Amino acid sequence: MSIIPSIASRLPAVVRDTFTALKHPNYRLWFVGQLVSLVGTWMQATAQGYLIFDLTHSAAYLGYVGFAGGIPTLVLTLYGGVLADRVPRRTLLIITQLYMMLLAIILAGLVFSNLIQPWHIIVLAFLLGIGNSFDAPARQSFVVELVGHDDLANAIALNSSMFTTANAIGPAVAGITYAAFGPGWCFTLNGISFLAVILALSLMRLKPMVFESAHKSAVHAMGEALHFVRRKRAIILLLTTVCVVGMFGMSLMSLMPAWAVDVLKGDVKTNGWLLSARGVGALMGALTVAAFSARTVRGKLWTAGSFLLPILMLLFSFMRIVPVSLAALVLVGWAFMTVMNTSNALVQLRVTDALRGRVMGLYTLVFFGAMPLGTLILGWLAEQVSAPFAVWVASGVLVCYFLIIWFRFPEVRKLE
Which has the closest alpha carbon to 148: 255, 23, 44, 254? Predict the structure, then answer.
């Protein structure tokens, strides 16, 4: 008997339920490799946002970066989903990781050489968006190869806990590194961190998968996925929610550099702590969903998070004391991840393996496509009026949306 199953057998039931996907060796490799890489990713995202704000002193530029990174998503993500159903996903992931590592190294080189300009950051964000358009559908649909169908919902929740653990650690480390050594080292460490997930992918022993024939045109393959989704009312509702929350919930975080300086009168370390606080809350939300992954309460969790998210965002907008703001963002992170993680699991549990890559490509499209539009809108509102006003607008939109869901689509509360 291996060490991890032996330890797991002696843990309380709720703990075993929370971490059950870790019994799979391939998933353990994935979890560790991705965790290291994602810490680097969050370091770069945090340092990049503060750097462009430091260069321009403009909240609008924060929106431009987010928008530039999302443009490729609108064009390429559906094709990325088609590709994820046609080629080995491990191979596709290794290629995207190498590509994104190269972009991080280029960004670091521009900073170290003192050549960095705002337009460099915008262009590199656009190029990174191209990589994400192929990486995200492959990554989302790859999980079933690691754990099978029985533990899929738990693995999805643990994926989010991995993402949010990195979100909690990365920004804080980035703030300290940026203040002590400058942004170049944040980008360098991100480049190095990609080696962890590439190594993990290389060490996995995967069962052969049957992939879709490439004889069909990409347009026809995309049409099959759209036809499938159109006949599933629950999936349409969940994808719409991902779009709205991505636009007006996730995009809140793009304002944090301006919020740290203009609202809380802080600096780069304050920005890192704000992002990390949201990450701590998101981790708590992901673990909450993981703990209940074997129970039929996903619709209730989704509903609780949906109402708490805009209320907590509104409360955060009135906070002017750093510790209180951090506490509010922890709760915002919990609510956000409860909604998004549950939505992801509910979609994947309703998708066939043959269409998984394409449907998750559509999922990625609505999330990563909506988020840059939200950052553009909120960045513009923050520039024209104020950052708190932008958050008030976002909260109001979310309240209206979830009230419509509550009255018009009560079946969502019963989803399992």
Answer: 23
Neighbours of 405 (CB within 10 A): 19
Residue ranges per structural domain of the chain: 14-204+220-414
In Å, what is the CA distance from 98 to each residue of 23, 37, 199, 298? 28, 12, 11, 36
- pLDDT computed for residue 8 by the predictor: 46
User: What pLDDT score was predicted for residue 376?
Assistant: 81
In the predicted model, residues of the chain with pLDDT beneath 50 are 1, 4, 7-8, 11
What pLDDT sits at residue 415? Answer: 66
Superfamily of the domain at 14-204+220-414? MFS general substrate transporter like domains (1.20.1250.20)
Residue 19: predicted pLDDT: 79
Q: Are 306 and 402 in contact (CB under 8 A)?
A: yes
Burial class (CB in 10 A: 0-12, 13-18, 19+), 99: middle
- Tell me how far apart the alpha carbons of residues 105 and 263 are, in angstroms, rounded to a whole number: 33
